[in-house]
């Protein structure tokens, strides 16, 4: 009965998402902006056109560059209109390493107030700190709304990846959800590489799949948010 329940949960989610999972090598194996030459599916062009991510002053997207916490906060606010959502508090949260003149100050305040991201001890946010793939996927799932798989189903979903044991426990449900939804670009060796830094190319892929989802099925499920008390500061 337990296996049947897990199988039915997975089947229901797959039917709801209705988007296949594509294995794609990341931009780490390509020269900068080589991914823009794709014709059938161009994640970078899609997210730039949607104004979710921007190119640099040199005109390139630089998909190989790593994502920082401030940049990720800004992207989540724009993608999910977090500034329009009800926040836990209207007062600014004291963050000692992000001044009011910081380019992402308002976005960082928004993700902190909505609980999408958390700060560190000492009222620190570490805006330039690199974000791992597991952290970025967990934050994306938290912003979008995560499906609560039973543990057995999570394990079944992640069992296909050789490095699934390296996925932090607090991120496993979120990673399983994003994998099932087709948001994750796998490495050429079939690994998820959850502890490696998230690149701009990786995030472009995630967001482009989200945009594709919204075009096909704009319905956003109402789900219980991830319990932040069990998540590492991200």
From TrEMBL:
<dbReference type="InterPro" id="IPR001119">
    <property type="entry name" value="SLH_dom"/>
</dbReference>
<dbReference type="Pfam" id="PF00395">
    <property type="entry name" value="SLH"/>
</dbReference>
<feature type="domain" description="SLH">
    <location>
        <begin position="158"/>
        <end position="221"/>
    </location>
</feature>
<dbReference type="InterPro" id="IPR051465">
    <property type="entry name" value="Cell_Envelope_Struct_Comp"/>
</dbReference>
<keyword id="KW-0732">Signal</keyword>
<protein>
    <submittedName>
        <fullName>S-layer protein</fullName>
    </submittedName>
</protein>
<feature type="domain" description="SLH">
    <location>
        <begin position="91"/>
        <end position="154"/>
    </location>
</feature>
<feature type="signal peptide">
    <location>
        <begin position="1"/>
        <end position="23"/>
    </location>
</feature>
<feature type="domain" description="SLH">
    <location>
        <begin position="27"/>
        <end position="90"/>
    </location>
</feature>
């Amino acid at each position: 009965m337990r296996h049947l329940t897990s199988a039915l949960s997975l089947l229901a989610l797959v039917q709801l998402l209705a988007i296949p999972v594509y294995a794609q090598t990341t931009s780490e194996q390509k020269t900068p902006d080589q991914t823009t030459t794709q014709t059938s599916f161009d994640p970078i062009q899609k997210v730039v056109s949607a104004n979710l991510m921007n190119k640099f002053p040199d005109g390139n997207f630089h998909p190989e560059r790593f994502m920082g916490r401030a940049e990720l906060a800004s992207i989540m606010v724009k993608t999910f209109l977090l500034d329009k959502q009800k926040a836990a508090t209207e007062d600014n949260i004291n963050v000692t390493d992000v001044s009011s003149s910081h380019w992402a100050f308002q976005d960082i305040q928004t993700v902190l107030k909505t609980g999408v991201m958390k700060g560190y001890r000492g009222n620190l946010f570490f805006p330039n700190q690199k974000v791992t793939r597991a952290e970025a996927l967990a934050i994306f799932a938290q912003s979008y709304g995560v499906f609560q798989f039973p543990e057995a189903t999570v394990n079944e979903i992640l069992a296909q990846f050789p490095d699934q044991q390296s996925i932090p426990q607090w991120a496993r449900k979120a990673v399983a959800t994003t994998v099932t939804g087709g948001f994750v670009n796998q490495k050429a060796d079939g690994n998820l590489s959850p502890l490696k830094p998230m690149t701009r190319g990786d995030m472009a892929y995630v967001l482009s799949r989200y945009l594709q989802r919204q075009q096909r099925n704009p319905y956003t499920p109402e789900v219980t948010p991830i319990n932040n008390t069990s998540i590492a500061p991200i």
